[in-house]
Amino acid sequence: MKAFLILEDGHVFSGTSIGSRKEVISEIVFNTSMTGYLEVLTDPSYAGQAVCMTYPLIGNYGICYEDSESLRPWPDGYIVRELSRMPSNFRSEDTIQNFLKKFDIPGIAGIDTRALTKILREKGTMNGMITTNENYEIEKIIPKLKEYTTGRVVEKVTCSEKSVLKGKGKKVALLDLGAKNNIAKSLNQRGCQVTVYPALTTAEEILSGNPDGIMLSNGPGDPKECTSIITEIKKLYHSDVPIFAICLGHQLMALAAGADTHKMKYGHRGGNHPVKDLKTGRVYISSQNHGYVVDTDRLDPAIAVPAFINVNDGTNEGLSYIGKNIFTVQFHPEACPGPQDSGYLFDRFMEMMGGTK
After folding, report:
1. Catalytic site residue from 192, 226, 332, 336
2. Across 343-349, average pLDDT
3. Whose CA, among 47, 92, 94, 222, lies 20 to 30 Å from 323?
4. Catalytic option among 52, 226, 247, 336
5. E-strand spans in the chain?
6. Which of 8, 250, 334, 336 is catalytic?
7. Binding residues
8. CA–CA separation, 284 vs 312, rounded Å?
9. Nearest in space to 8 (alpha carbons), one of 122, 132, 142
10. Cβ-based neighbour number of residue 315 at 10 Å
11. Known catalytic residue: 64?
């Protein structure tokens, strides 16, 4: 069946329908990863977005549910150049086509994803529609596209209740803003007992558990939409508990401390982004997925200083807080399938909490 991707600037791409056949409006973003498409699909940070994969062949090693980063996929739509319908992998349990149908996610295959990516790089991220309606009226669709916003998506992706991943070491409170599974696993592998809290949990409840450390996770959407969460993070900031934050958690901590954030032109999404440690000068290859960034021009150096920068565009990739046992990063040290260059940051967090014992 034919499918169409209609962008708010009037561009129309024609291809083949994959997955669900429902019509969807979403923010269109691109990801440059060559592997890890299941991890992309199950990353809660993509809620409210449709993802274009720049790598030309997707699905060749099938679906292995064990590799999922959450219980379900979160993107509104999926866009690929070529979809492999006959995966070859001894671990494969399903095809992407069936996976998308199972979770009612529409997609489009057979379009020029390189051309689409160039449009998004030159004009910036924009909204679009995936539809199988061949009689679409573009003059009626474009106003709807321009009105779309992702809204308050953190509440959509967070867990519904508190849960515990048992361990015999340090007690870590993980605030689930849309957390990938491997964050809790990375802590648990280091012996930590991880208590996962819903995003709207109060600081008082988190601190009442007497955690040795607090982890603020990744998540979707505009950080400035999370007003009530920022209020609670301010209270956590003023506690003496060591805090490590990733991605959205990094942005929310910055906002809680008085800094600012702004939307990027097309964001960083992929597994090949170089970041530089400003203390050592060493460069790490990182996995990233974000469309907003902390504005260091509005950062009070008496509160926090940049710890990492993006080598490609010089944007902020991490902060170290003055007089506080707090550090935050924009990238993903828990990256799965990788790269895992910066996994040592979890060891640094362990040291902040007093070591592995």
Report:
1. 332
2. 93
3. 222
4. 247
5. 2-7, 12-19, 24-31, 49-53, 57-58, 77-80, 82-83, 106-109, 126-131, 163-165, 171-176, 193-198, 213-216, 243-246, 260-277, 283-295, 304-310, 316-321, 326-329
6. 334
7. 45, 219, 221, 248, 251, 289, 291-292
8. 12
9. 142
10. 18
11. no
Average pLDDT, the chain: 96
State both tokens at 325.
Answer: 């046992």
Catalytic residue check, 334: yes
247 noted as active-site residue: yes
CA distance 146 to 162: 37
Token pair for 42: 């199950």
Confidence band for 273, pLDDT divided at 50, 70 and 90: very high
Closest CA to 293 of 343, 338, 254, 345: 254
CA 45, CA 223: separation in Å to the nearest integer?
12
DSSP letter string, 255-298: HHTT-EEEEEEEEEEEEEEEEEETTT--EEEEEEEEEEEEEGGG
d(CA 250, CA 256): 10
Taking alpha carbons only, the member of 137, 109, 83, 101 closest to residue 22 is 101
Q: What is the CA radius of gyration of the chain?
A: 20
Whole-number Å distance between alpha carbons of 21 and 132: 7
pLDDT in tens, 65-122: 999 999 999 999 999 999 998 999 999 999 999 999 999 999 999 999 999 999 999 9
pTM (2 d.p.): 0.96
